[in-house]
Amino acid sequence: LIGSMNPEEGELRPQFLDRFGLSVDVAADTDADRRATAVGRRLAFDADPAAFGLEWADEQGRLRAQVTTARPAVVTPDLTVTVSRLCTSVGAESLRADLVTCRAAAALAGIEGRSDATIDDVRRVAPLALGHRRRRQPFEQPGIDADEVDRALDGADRDVPPPHDDSGGQDGSDRAGPEPPTADDGGPDGGGGTQSKPGGERVAATAAPTRVVRLEATGSPSGTEGRRSTAVGTRGRLVGDREPDGPVGSVAVAATIRAAATRGAATRAAATRAAATRGAVSGAGRGLVIDAHDLREAVRERRVGNLVVLVVDASGSMGAARRMEAAKGAVMSLLLDAYQRRDRVAMVTFRGEEAEVALRPTGSVEVARARLADLPTGGRTPLAAGLVAAMELATSTGRHDDAERPLLVVVTDGRATAGPPSVDPVRAATEAAASVRRRGIAAVVVDVEEGPTRLGLAAELARAMGARHLTLDELSAGALTLAVRAACD
User: Fold this and answer.
1) What share of the chain in percent tops pLDDT 70?
2) Which of 371, 379, 383, 411 is closest to 315 using CA atoms?
3) Strand partners, 117
4) Quick one: CA torsion of 390, 391, 396, 397, rounded to 10 degrees?
5) Kind and range of the H or E run holding 95
6) Could you tell me which of 170, 149, 470 has the C-alpha nearest to residue 333?
7) What's the CA gap between 454 and 237, in Å, rounded?
8) Are strands 442-447 and 468-471 parallel, antiparallel or unpaired?
9) Residues 56, 377: Cα–Cα separation, whole Å
10) How far apart are CA 305 and CA 319, in angstroms?
11) What's the predicted TM-score (pTM) here?
């Protein structure tokens, strides 16, 4: 396979990445002289493509001859063992990693005119062959640097156990993922990772993600549901049949035959005469006769996508008692869940006097994680503005085939201290929440309020939205129970 991609459009699954032999990251050159040289050559090509081609014809011909005449070098059995131990030590699961590394080392030695590949060839090609094969969980940074390759090769004479926990599927669908990077500990407020910024703002660290309880995007007037549940329609796997009510979209053949076969001989004879009169399909001789009344419509079920709109309260009240750290951990858990379910994600934050779309809908949960990590807290709480912005985002980016359902996940303590001019902030928030309910948008409120004394404002917000209300503990409380139940079924 040969391809290119922008990681911000969404990471590829590990099983698919493994099909690519080598990978390379292409980034903008930061050296001004090299950039100027590239621009100059491009301008020269634009001015006279034919002359530019002639100028580089000899160099192009030399490279072509070098590639076409080169032959792969020999990879000795000892070097093969070294390669396999290297791949094992860095956690590459598939044998493709071993094969590609050996082939690339042989090609490199061959193109340089050498008959035998060496460990130095392996050292040079290993980052290209192994970097994209190490990432098996969301939020795990892809790539491998030369120093790590050197350390692994230095220990290649002994078996090195892989550093990753290989429990669960290769795509990480049954694992919570590694703990994401956090800010440095020891902030001035003693928050264990919270950093202060000018103007009273703070950037909290992120708690480790965990598995979350099942969240569903239900309640659509069209009946279409997301991958968190199922949608019944004319496409997908056959799950049943029914008598048609109008035009038949998809015939359930087996069910239709069964319906025809259960009719009595007298009924079949009558149907044959009626079919002859109407010109309908009928069997010959004593064969089975299919009448219009026998038709059964197929009931099919499929899973379709979700757009998970994360609405994150970043106001000053969220900075109290490590609340934002816990909130970020909850959002990370939701991002992990979205990754596993192939959902797209978007993020809206609100603080001060307004809401901001921090991330447009994307398939890359890694981009959302990066935006979340730098999210500061401070200022008042414009809860109404956050809900309105989320509604607009959820309803303006729908897919044409109705295969994507919006699901609002509001992470807040429920306080509202800022709103439109001359409007009570609490009343504005309640009206915005009621609007979410009227539009039939599925929603979940994750209540991050903690401590012995709680105002319960997030629960009131959930009732106004017609949303499911979950505390931080409840968000992940059912994970172990669900896992045990699944294992016992």
Assistant:
1) 68
2) 379
3) none
4) 50
5) helix 95-111
6) 470
7) 47
8) parallel
9) 56
10) 34
11) 0.53
Angle, vertex CA 268, rays to CA 266 and CA 269, nearest 5: 65
Residue for token pair 């414009």: 382
> Tokens standing for 86?
């290297």
Question: 304 with 342: CB under 8 angstroms?
Answer: no
Burial classification of residue 388, based on how many CB atoms lie within 10 Å of its CB (0-12 exposed, 13-18 middle, 19 or more buried): buried
Q: What is the pLDDT of residues 279-296, one digit of tens each?
A: 655 554 556 777 777 888
- Measured CA to CA, the distance from residue 364 to residue 321 in angstroms comes to 31
- The position carrying tokens 């009928």 is 282
SS3 313: strand
CB 446 within 8 A of CB 337: no
Kindly report the number of other CB atoms within 10 A of residue 86's CB atom: 25
Across 183-187, 247-251, 358-362, least confident range: 183-187
The residue to which tokens 């001359």 are assigned: 422
User: 252, 440 in Cβ contact below 8 A?
Assistant: no
Is the pLDDT assigned to residue 79 strictly greater than 50? yes
Residues shown for the chain = 489
User: Do 449 and 413 contact (CB within 8 A), yes or no?
Assistant: yes
- The residues with which 411 forms a beta bridge, in sequence order, are 312, 446
Q: Measured between alpha carbons, how far is residue 342 from residues 348, 386, 420, 443 in Å?
A: 20, 25, 37, 19
Helix (H, G, I), strand (E, B) or coil at 253: helix
DSSP type of residue 411:
E
- Which DSSP category does 251 fall into? B
